[in-house]
């Protein structure tokens, strides 16, 4: 018999519950015990936050968004904010305590479901001796070693549906609608939803944008009797002179940058330069919510099953990845080494340009 603990960390994403469902059901069929650590590593620090999971506890959750275990992006055990007796906040390392509790509770493996931040923490625990297997989760699709991460397809579908609805209101009022989407410093959500949702302009972090090119596209629409435009902007988009946009730093002055504001700035510039009625909309956490699409649901279930196989094979400090349609293990260290960016020469970029979408730059080969 094996004893497994599952945790979900970082921002939530549609499909988290499907991974938990898959792990619990497969382990139960093997006669293994499964526990869930609430709110990231909370269960390792507070016994009340560690829960035994049976098939009845996860019945039907594969179709629901969020995570039944809760998640946090502020609970790094290697730099945890703790209030001392004087009421001051101190940053302490509680990783040794977590490792002791992991061993004391008799766990054989920790399945850590998360993005690059959560997987980085999992890798550090692996280096300290904890048997860890990672499952890639991020709506941003920016993990280098896997073709897809679950949550991405649902986020793109949500953004595309919003763009579909904005076309009618933009056309009715001859407006320019600027839609800011998530993605951090990768433009996958903006590119996929923008192409699928009929955007006129797509601005992604990988291609610094020129407002003159953006406004020229909007003016060109007017010349061709199209009096409205849809502009999709990734939250991490930057101007050609290197200006980026953020709402501040993370909690306690950490280096985490909270992105946001580029959509409103772009809308303001369009309004000034074209005199068009322009509005901005930030989709924000709407992209994280809701039931996972069929693609994400199936992918999450497959990731969970592959993680259990790696437990059985004792392939630790690895992440399950989707490569060329099959599940393979990759070292977590490789998966978090760098973020996956949109390739300038990709077919999707070429498709966007071919159908006349402006990417905020001077199109190659066009004078």
Question: Could you please describe the fold and organization of this structure?
Answer:
- The protein has two domains: 3-150 and 292-335, Rossmann fold (3-Layer(aba) Sandwich); 154-289 and 343-354, Rossmann fold, CATH 3.40.50.
- The strands form four sheets. It has a seven-stranded mixed sheet with strand order 3-2-1-6-7-14-15, with helices on both faces. A four-stranded parallel sheet has the order 9-10-8-13, with helices on both faces. Strands 4-5 form a two-stranded antiparallel ribbon.
- The termini are far apart.
- It has helices at residues 16-30, 42-45, 95-104, 116-127, 152-173, 188-196, 211-223, 262-274, 294-313, 332-335, 347-354, and strands spanning 3-8, 33-37, 50-52, 80-83, 89-92, 109-114, 132-136, 176-181, 201-203, 229-234, 246-249, 257-259, 278-282, 318-323, 326-331.
- It has 367 residues and is α/β, with parallel strands linked by helices.
- The protein has eleven helices and 15 strands.
- 35% of the residues lie in helices and 20% in strands.
- Helix 1 crosses helix 9 (294-313) and helix 5 packs across helix 6 (188-196).
Tell me the radius of gyration: 22 Å
| Major sheet strand order | 3-2-1-6-7-14-15
> Terminal Cα separation, in Å?
68 Å
Q: Uncertain regions: pLDDT < 50 for 5+ in a row?
A: none
What is the makeup of the main sheet?
Answer: 7 strands, mixed
| N to C succession of SSEs | EHEHEEEHEHEHEHEHEEEHEHEEHH
User: Roughly what fraction of the amino acids lie in strands?
Assistant: 15-25%
The secondary-structure class comes to alpha/beta
The CATH topology of the largest domain is given as Rossmann fold
CATH class of the largest domain: Alpha Beta
The total strand number stands at 15
